[in-house]
Fold:
Amino acid sequence: MVDTRAGAITLTSSVAGGTQTGTFRGGMFEVRQSRSGTGMTDIVLRGGDFSSCGRARSAAKRTPPVRRLWGSDKGGRFATHGRNSVATVRGTAWVTTETCAGTRTTVTEGAVSVRDLHRRKTVLVRAGGSYLAR
Structure:
């Protein structure tokens, strides 16, 4: 478990033939990597209290983000896992924000492939865009 709510970390993980590096800030997360050697490093958002999400829909729109994580990398293989989507990135800057309304992936640089877990579809989000998986 990594807590970057008060700072940032540079995470270096192993890939076939070398290492990859990403910088993460502004949230709590768990780091996972399979033993298969493919190099994909999974960043799973943690923390936050979603107990108020069962209330009226209008209240959910006013609710501030329950959890958020900023990330950036240069050619690494990172996948950010939220409750409703998985964002796979390679050389970009992005933020994953979770609210009662869903998981929003916003891209500030490059492009991110977002897999909507409920709709079972993948969307490519480019810099300046975002995608909300409900």
Remarks:
- The longest helix spans residues 57-62.
- The mean pLDDT is 90.
- The helical segments are 57-62.
